[in-house]
Amino acid sequence: MTIEVTEQVLAPTRTDRDAHIQESQEKVIERLSADPSKAVKTLAMSGSVDDGLACRVTQGPHSAVMDMGIAMGGEARGPSPGFFGRAGIVGCVAIATKMTAAREGLEFRSVHVDLEMDSDDLAIFGLGGKKAAPLQTRITIRVDTDEPVDAVASLIERVLDADPWFLALRDPQAVSVRWQKVQPR
Asked: Residue 18's CB: how many other CB atoms inside 10 A?
C-alpha cells in the first residue's frame, strides 16, 4: 500500500459539507454506542441471470446490471462483476477516508484511490493450476490536504483497519454456500 500526501500552502478552511458529515457521523456513533446490538445487521442482495449472461442485482431500492464482455459470450450490457468488486473497494476506502477526516475535524479537500489488481483469466475456467482469486492488489491513496503527514498516515491506517471492503479483500472470512435445484414446470 502506498500513501501519498499532496501538501500545498493554503489556509485550511472547514467546509459546511465537512461539518455536516461530522455531525451526521457523531449522531450515528452515539445511537449505535447506546445500543450496540443495532450495529450488527444482515444485508441481503439477489441477482438473476436468465437468457444470456447479464445479471440484474437488487438490494432494497437499488439495482444494477452486470454482464460479461462480448469475447466471453456476454453482451456488455453493464460492467463485469469484477468491476463492481473493485469499485466497492475503491469507493469504500475513498469514502471512509474522507468521512473519517471530516468526523475528526481534519480537512481533506479530496481523496483519490487507485486500485490495480492482477489476475489469471485461465483460472476462472479451472485451467492453469492457479486460483481465480486476485494474485496481487495494489492500492494507492492520494490525499489533497494541508494536514501533517503523520496525522494523515495515522488516519489512513485506522480507516483501513475498519474498512469492510478492504478487509473483505485482505482477510479470510467464513463464507457458506447452499444451492437448490429448481424443479421444471
From this structure: 20
140-177: b (≥16 Cβ within 10 Å) or e: ebbbebbbeeeebeebbeebbeebebbeebeeeeeeee
Taking alpha carbons only, the member of 89, 87, 90, 103 closest to residue 155 is 103
Q: Which domains are assigned to the chain?
A: 2-32+79-170 (3.30.300.20)
Pairwise CA distance, residues 149 & 157, whole Å: 12
Longest Cα separation, the chain: 70
Distance between first and last Cα of the chain: 52
Please give the DSSP secondary-structure letter assigned to residue 126.
Answer: T
Pair 128, 83: CB distance under 8 Å: no
How far apart are alpha carbons 118 and 114 in whole angstroms? Answer: 13
| pLDDT, one tens digit for every residue, the chain (185 residues) | 655 555 554 444 567 899 999 999 999 999 999 999 999 999 999 999 999 999 999 999 999 999 999 999 999 999 999 999 999 999 999 999 999 999 999 999 999 999 999 999 999 999 998 899 999 999 999 999 999 999 999 999 999 999 999 999 999 989 999 999 998 88
